Amino acid sequence: MRGLKSVIFVTGVCPDNCFYCPISYQKKGKDVTYINESKVRSEKDLILEACACGSRGASMTGGDPIARLDRTIRYIGILKSFFGSSFHIHLYTSGTLLTDDAMNKLVKAGLDEIRVHIIGKRSWGALRTALKYPISVGIENPVIPGTEDLLKDIIVRAYELGVNFINLNELEFSETNQYQLRLRGIKPAEDGASALGSKETAIRILKWVEEEGLAISVHYCPASFKDKVQFKSRMLRRAKITRRVYEEVTSEGLVLWAETPVNSPAIRELKLKNLAFHAGDVVRIHPVVAKSLGGKVQFVEAYPADPRKVLNTWFRD
């Protein structure tokens, strides 16, 4: 909830073909690896990004991380070796490819938790396999409108098996799944990012779990939560940790700086005071300093990624 975990997209490869999969065209079906918003080009990128975000753990996702088991195990080992055993790592899978051998290797590497997406019999078999090991085992499924009875059945079976928790995610609308969702009569909610009726279905299920007295943790996660809370919290932390001396951190987790031409009259004096920094054919200065300058000044707002991803620019004459 505090954005303290880095998201490692191990691979876009997946043995399943769920019609509601929201993964982007850039990643879906492609054997690419990302950590947060950055492409992983070498294994040290995992460490550098986790440090930049002040992460205390990581989630391994995809695609299906089990589809690239050796890579997943190697990444878990690298993170645990560098950050220590308290660095909490959880993994998402449908369980289609999960075997005893794979589970044994994952646990030995240091995996702390596994979340199975129930799509059929093999998912239930994977749950039974995972429950034999000393790690936390849960279920994580999207709430598709019209599947209330199915989800209730999943919860009851999970309770009987001894599953530790269940996460119900609001069904997301994306450019890659919206056609398939609409074909099935599922419409987008007003926010355009979630499915109409998904939230209401989840709330009814939560109330039902309470009324039935089922002693299992069931959590509902709104689609907006990822961007408005998790992503924003992680960006704010990354901005504070990686802030350059000429940058200001905004309340939204973005960074703000000012730029002015190198021949600006006040630049010489600012350089002498170590308040101006060359960046190509411009000089970057802190927004507070820029407000005291005359002449043409451009303000730049960006994501605190590496390199910075510019979102907005505007001039103040």
Write up what this structure looks like.
It is a single chain. With 317 residues, the chain is an alpha/beta fold. The strands form two sheets. It has a nine-stranded mixed sheet with strand order 3-2-1-4-5-6-7-8-9. The protein folds into two domains: 5-235, TIM Barrel; 244-316, no CATH class. It has helices spanning 44-52, 69-83, 100-109, 121-130, 148-161, 178-183, 198-212, 223-242, 267-272, 287-290, and strands spanning 5-11, 34-35, 38-39, 57-62, 88-93, 113-116, 136-143, 165-170, 217-221, 248-249, 255-261, 276-279, 282-285, 297-303, 309-316. Helix 2 runs parallel beside helix 3. It starts with a strand and ends with a strand.
Topology, element by element:
Elements: E1 5-11, E2 34-35, E3 38-39, H1 44-52, E4 57-62, H2 69-83, E5 88-93, H3 100-109, E6 113-116, H4 121-130, E7 136-143, H5 148-161, E8 165-170, H6 178-183, H7 198-212, E9 217-221, H8 223-242, E10 248-249, E11 255-261, H9 267-272, E12 276-279, E13 282-285, H10 287-290, E14 297-303, E15 309-316
Parallel strand pairs: 1-4, 4-5, 5-6, 6-7, 7-8, 8-9
Antiparallel strand pairs: 1-2, 2-3, 10-11, 11-13, 11-14, 12-13, 14-15
Helix pairs in contact: 2-3, 5-7
